[in-house]
Amino acid sequence: MDLKDALAARFDRLKSGDDGWQALAGAGVLGLPFAEAHGGLGLPPHEGFAVLEVLGSRAIALPYLECVLLAGVLLDRAGGDAAAHWLPRIAAGEAKIALATVDDREPARAAIDTAGWRLSGGKLLAIGAAEAEAAIVTATTDDGPAAFLIARDALAMKAYPTIDGRRAADLLLDDVTVPNEARLNVEPDDIAETLDLGAAAIVAEAAAIMTRLVADTRDYCVQREQFGKAISDFQVVQHRLVDMHIEARRAAAAAALAADALDLDPAGRSKAISAAKVTIADAGRFVGQNAVQLHGGMGMTAELPVSALFKRLTVIESEFGTRDEHLARYMALA
Fold first, then answer.
1. Mean pLDDT of successive 10-residue segments in the chain (334 residues)?
2. CATH 1.10.540.10 fits 3-91, yes or no
3. What is the CATH code of the structural domain delimited by 188-333?
4. What are all long-range contacts of 215-222, with beta carbons under 8 Å and residues at least 24 apart?
5. Is-above-0.85 flag for pTM?
């Protein structure tokens, strides 16, 4: 049994009210991409995409991507005392850290003075920040983009729910001052690679969601009757299901392309991941909307997972860059 199947079986056994995060800890995947010295397994980050596929296809909202695959991997790469302190605790399910990279109207900035690093500006949509013990915040310095590890208590934030069942927060960096050692030992290219990793990860999650939506919609059409027979017997519905299946397969191919691209040079990586993100945006909208339509009114209720899955696809469409932004990046790199 591979990781994805084992984790799927574990989550299928969970009862209402069970702690999904501790289930991930028990499965040993919270430290999957961390170095062994930091309590991890030392596996490539893309191996964690299987976790996102399991969570996404079940509409389970946990900050595995943000805490483990992004903030955790970036901290693991930085090393030092901060990594030694935080990563073993994350791997054991004892702590969470968030990642804040989306700027408000103006890019967040950081300037050094005698007291340390002084940050200003704001960050939006930091998933899981309100529940985390610390956050990695990106800001522009005179030397380019940098990342800072900041304790939760030092951050002013406004938390709110997102439409896909997650919790996000906007951070106000109103002259937040942190010590010199709060700046992580990472380069601008490391931050760019982390953002590309995030985009590739949600492409994999979206592909898994589409596979689930196609299967659930097919099963529902077999059961739902209209004019005395199952609607799956109508040719127009069959054609629609086939089109959904084709788009889901196209999404799966894009996800595989994006995962493979993580090993390419920066330009090749960015180009391939942007192509995959555009593909996912188009395919996700088609599959999601048709799944809701073929389910009829039930597609808008909380009784079936289709509505939650559709909401997650809608959010993924603009996460880590919109369709238009990735199309523009692809064209610039072509």
1. 88 89 95 95 96 96 97 97 96 97 93 93 96 97 96 94 96 92 96 98 98 97 89 92 98 98 96 98 97 91 92 96 97 93
2. yes
3. 1.20.140.10
4. 216/291, 216/304, 216/305, 216/306, 217/241, 217/244, 217/290, 217/291, 217/294, 217/295, 217/306, 220/294, 220/295, 220/298, 220/304, 221/294
5. yes
